[in-house]
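tool=predict chain=A
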Amino acid sequence: MSAAQKGLIATLVIGVFLGAADLSLLAPGLLPIARAFHLPTGLASWLVTFYAIVYGASLPILGVLGDRHGRRLLFAAGGIVFALGSLLAGMSAGFALLLAGRGLQALGAAALMPLASAEIGQAFPAERRGAMLGLLGAVYGVAAIIAPPIGGVVVAEFGWHWLFLATLPIGLAVAVLAFLYVSEGTHAVPEPADIQGAALTAVTAAAILLGVEMLHRQVLPLGWASLVFGALLLPNLVLWERSAAAPIFHGGGRLVSVYILGCLSAAATAVALFVPLYAMQTMHLQEAASGTALLPMALASAATSYYGGRLADRLGPVPVLAMGFLLMAVGAGAVVFVGGVLGMIVGLLLVGGGVGLTMGSPLQYLVLGLAPKAQAGSAQALLGTFRALGVAIGPVVYGSLLPAFTSLFLAAAAIGLLGLTATLWLWGMRLRPDPV
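tool=predict ok
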């Protein structure tokens, strides 16, 4: 590996770690923030919800901009915008400014995450691409594991403001490193960029994300209205994409199926949110210790994400993806049919292994192999948007099944089997030897 590639990997690892950690770093600070602004905890949780909506909706537009104006510029801008959001949130004296800062952080993270995968395709040959994508997936998983305890320490020792201020210099460092190591990443394309298609996709995604969240919060009129609005936009999006010179939904039906698999894998992964509650009921753990039940799943996910990337380089991404969905289905089934502590530990290890394989490198690898090379960034961004939809939909589906944990884990197994079936349709598909 050359010095330039090492510098690039360091840049991407820091950027992905920053974006992934920020998703869960705030969790321990929600209660102190609610107390500081004299808010109900449910209102303070909008700091998480607003972040998710802005992140998922802005991805399509940022992907198109990155392809047309250069990944280096957009990656650096993402770090700067993230840093500005951290500063605004950390120095805010009111909840509205705090929410605005959180939105800027989401916008910055949306510029970092998908472009990192596209840059891997530019900088590394096909035979090493899976390993590098797997490394980024492992970093994402580790960041998600360690961010909440780190956030707890920061809140206890320094106060909630430092959950934001501590990330400011990291965002600026990402911007500087981007100018040093990230490639320009632009391609000469005669057709105009599909900004309208990207905007339609963004508004549709935002409406669906908001609608799902409102249903989850039992705000039924607004939830259903938002979902209906999103559904009404879909035919307009389809018609526009059919006539666009360079549509954002490019690559044909197989690429769209990869996006749908991304949504399914993210929805299945959301079962992790209910594991602590299940552990309290099954293992009679105290609430403070219930989170430890996630450790087998989290560690297995981090390990398989990294090694699954290497396996994708040898076997191809489709067999690895099928293996991931199979592990998720078998693991969720083991929780139900084996039962007890043994069933939970073994089942969650298998589910975690499946999560690492499906949320790690294979899907990004497939996107790089199916999307036109001039639109690699927007394709990765669309995968991120579909994953955001899965992350939002999964908890609503699972939550509707409570308190029947058997039905909950059987639903997760069913999603795994559905993903496996859809993956088999991609079997034998030929990818370009050097996609980007």
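The CA atoms of residues 203 and 282 lie 42 Å apart. The chain has a mean pLDDT of 84.
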